[in-house]
Amino acid sequence: MEELKKRVEELTKILNEANYNYYVKDEPTITDQEYDKYLRELINIENLHPELAKENSPTRRVGGEVIDKFNKVVHEKPMLSLANVFNEDEIKDFDNKIKKEGFKPEYVCEYKIDGLSVALLYEKGKLVRGVTRGDGVTGEDITHNVKTIKCIPLELKKPLDIEVRGEIFMNKNTLEKINASRKEEGLPLLQNVRNAAAGSIRQLDSKIAAKRELDNFIYYLPEPEKYNIKTHMEALEFMESLGFKINPANKIVKNIDEVLEFIEQAKQKRNNLAYEIDGIVIKVNNIQMQEELGYTAKYPKWATAYKFPAQEVLTRLKDIIFTVGRTGRITPNAVLEPVILMGSTISRATLHNEEYVKEKQLMINDIVSIRKAGDVIPEVVEAKIDRRTGQEIPFKMIDRCPMCKEKLEKNAGQVDYYCKNEKCPKRNIEGIIHYVSRDAMNIDGLGEEIVEELYNLGFIKNISDLYFLKNKKEKIMEFDGYGEKSVNKIIENIEKSKENSLERLLFGLGIREIGTKTAKILASNFSNMDMLMQASIEELESIKDIGKITAESVVNYLKENKELIEKLKEIGINMQYLGKSKKENELISGKKFVITGTIKDIGRKEIKEIIENYGGNVSESVSKNTDIVIVGSNPGSKYEEAIRLNRTIWDEEKTLEALKNLQ
After folding, report:
1. pLDDT, tens digit, for every residue of 266-302?
2. In this predicted structure, what is the pLDDT of residue 371?
């Protein structure tokens, strides 16, 4: 047995090195036949002696693990997206904003890979978790599929506890091979590399993901100061030294002119790359400068993404139809002759409102140019007026709802028309779809088609009806597609939604002007629904980021929908904010903190939560903007930096005393 154990270790080392040399360094050291021979030998040993199989064995690369569902995971540090710029002026504006802060930045330019972001967590050098970006705060656990990506190390070259972030993608030739095979089998073709990669990584059966030959580049280290790293390029080189695949195209540039030169070169190389890119990411190289520039609610201020100009195609505008949204807003939509644009078949595009259509002088039967805004959303650019034949039909805005035929209304000073009929079927359907959506009440199993079908079958007419579906279970199961297992799961998820925090309910109700961020602001300021319902317009306006229009919308909605709110209360839906409300403290509120070393009897994460709960901010690096540095035992270089910059220092005793007084 001891000899077998040594052989497993030997084979594991051979295969891991072969994977690294082939998929990361692009320098194969053994033949495919040799690799297959060693892999078969290891599989045979593990099958005969499962106790010798390691969690991160190279055999996991071929897949085989099947999961029931994707579990949600909260990121320890949010995975923020990047602000986009689309032209030279906006790139220069990004640079100027940084210079106005008193900095002279150098940048790192990177290709913006057309794939999906992933966070990889290692403990003692071993891969323990792979998580999608999700909404930036919460992602999905895709570890079983991440392990099949051969350029992602299962074990690092050093036994570190570390998180890194990167992009999973599919190469162009891989997509071609997959589609050739799917065509022979009579299966629908995968439209583009982004969708193919996203669909592959979300397979419940990892064998499918393994066959898709996904690839990965690592591009970000969340906590570089832990490793005494001073620049982003150093972080990339450090991650490469651990065994990660880093894009060799990454480049340090000294100024914005060199950024523009890099972009022009990338445009020339774009079509010849093995993978798709849709732009260039520009990052400030100096880590401390990044920390001092900071973040907005959504984006880092020290990085931006330049998006390549959208490719355009021509097609015919066959018709303009109208849809009704959850708030009753009427939207004109272009019905197009299907056309392939950047790998996707486009047959519809929103035309937003009457003014938009008139401004673009669109007529039915026009030849129009189509592009993807930000390479994602199809939009009509213009009508080719010189190609008109006289068969075109002028656009005419409707004056009645296309669903319920009620007269449409348009508020003074606004461009949108609304159906004000609260019982309009389409409004109700869209409202329920919004209510069950991921960012709202997050009721898995109730997709758009199922909601619409349950509505048309008469099982639900409004959101409160969802909570009585459990009483109609047997009748629902009489219809095709509604097995006992799936219906039970839907009912279980509906019941679970009763426990959601107040901000999800506020967003789910579909109050005009209320997005996820505003819903959380309202919930955290008023704690429960009763307090919010008693608030006046003036009280709401006094809250930061709440304007008059939003305040009026909230007050009017809650006044007009008291009966619905009371019914939801009776059903047992939580009306309390479950998050932590910010409190005030003169020692902490509005101050910027850095924590270094170990504080007795309390973890760094707990200290950070307390500071943020009282309106303070915790940064990773000491700078001239830092107010207080908390120093515990065994502090790092941050302590020396705090002394050099003459920052206020709290030792362990002072910290514990300050935190104790907050209780």
Report:
1. 998 998 899 999 899 999 999 999 999 998 877 899 9
2. 83
Query: What count of Cα atoms within 13 Å lies in the side-chain half-sphere of residue 264?
Result: 7
Instruction: Judge whether 575 and 533 are in contact, CB under 8 Å.
Output: no
Tens digit of each residue's pLDDT (9 = 90 or more) over 603-632: 887 888 788 777 777 887 888 888 999 998
DSSP letters for 493-554: HHHHGGG--HHHHHHHTT-TT--HHHHHHHHHHHSBHHHHHH--HHHHHTSTT--HHHHHHH
Average pLDDT, the chain: 88
CA distance 632 to 639: 9
- The residue assigned the tokens 């690294």 is 20
What is the rounded CA–CA span in Å between residue 44 and residue 42? 5
Count Cα neighbours of 630 within 13 Å in the Cβ-side half-sphere.
30
CB contact at 8 A, 432 and 460 = yes
Q: Could you give the CA distance from residue 241 to residue 472 in angstroms, rounded to a whole number?
A: 59
Cβ neighbours, 10 Å, residue 324: 24
Residue 276: exposure state from Cβ atoms within 10 A (0-12, 13-18, ≥19)? buried
Query: In the chain, how many H helices and how many E strands?
Result: 24, 24
Phi and psi (nearest 5°) for 575? -115, 15
* Phi then psi dihedrals of residue 415, to 5 deg: -95, -15
Tallying the residues shown for the chain, one arrives at 663
Structure tokens at 59: 């055999």
**Banded pLDDT at 343 (limits 50, 70, 90):** low
Q: Is 544 left (phi over 0), alpha (psi -120 to 50) or beta?
A: beta
| Distances in whole angstroms, Cα of residue 525 to Cα of each of 520, 539, 553, 555, 618 | 8, 11, 17, 15, 22
Beta strands in 242-327 (DSSP E): 251-253, 277-284, 303-307, 312-324
Higher pLDDT, 457 or 369: 369
Residue-level pLDDT at 582: 60
Q: Which residues contact 595 (CB under 8 A, 6 or more apart)?
A: 604, 607, 608, 618, 629, 630, 632
CB distance 140 to 131 below 8 Å: yes
pTM recorded for the entire structure: 0.56
The whole-angstrom separation of Cα 633 and Cα 626 is 20
Kindly state the helix (H) or strand (E) to which residue 95 belongs, with its residue range. Answer: helix 88-100
Mark residue 136 as left, alpha or beta (left: phi above 0; alpha: psi -120 to 50; beta: remaining).
left
Q: Is pLDDT of 63 > 80? A: no
CA distances from 479 to 461, 462, 472, 486 (A): 18, 21, 12, 12
Strand, coil or helix: 392: coil
pLDDT tens-digit profile of 359-397? 999 999 999 999 876 556 788 999 999 999 999 999 999
String of DSSP letters for 151-193: TS-SB-SS---EEEEEEEE--HHHHHHHHHHHHHTTPPPP--H
Among 307, 308, 317, residue whose Cα is nearest residue 369: 317
SS3 416: coil
Domains and CATH numbers, the chain: 2-62 (1.10.287.610), 84-305 (3.30.470.30), 312-393 (2.40.50.140), 425-499 (1.10.150.20), 502-571 (1.10.150.20), 592-660 (3.40.50.10190)
Confidence of residue 592 (pLDDT cuts 50, 70, 90): confident
Q: Catalytic site residues?
A: 112
For 603, the enclosing helix (H) or strand (E) is: none
Which pLDDT band holds residue 165 (cuts at 50, 70, 90)? very high
